[in-house]
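Entry — protein

Goal — fold tokens:
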Amino acid sequence: MLRSFEKKSLVGFMAQFGDEMKNKFNEKLKGFEPEVTLFGDIVKARHKVAHSGGVHKSFKEVSKGINAAEIIIKAMKETLHENLL
């Protein structure tokens, strides 16, 4: 189960499927560290809004966060697809 969307947690989630999956997923995210970090920040901000009040994120940042989510999901999908099918 994913409890955090920081890179360490995402890679740890994929590691549940084995070291090969973890390594391939990590490789697919190479070069996208800023996007992965941004996505984690957006999720944390959403949590703060839901549980403790406001937060300062622009619509542009949120839009970039959505793009980052797409990168992460694509990397997960490709990794799982390549190794399980």
The helical segments are 7-15, 19-29, 33-52, 59-84. The two ends are 22 Å apart (CA to CA). The chain has a mean pLDDT of 87.
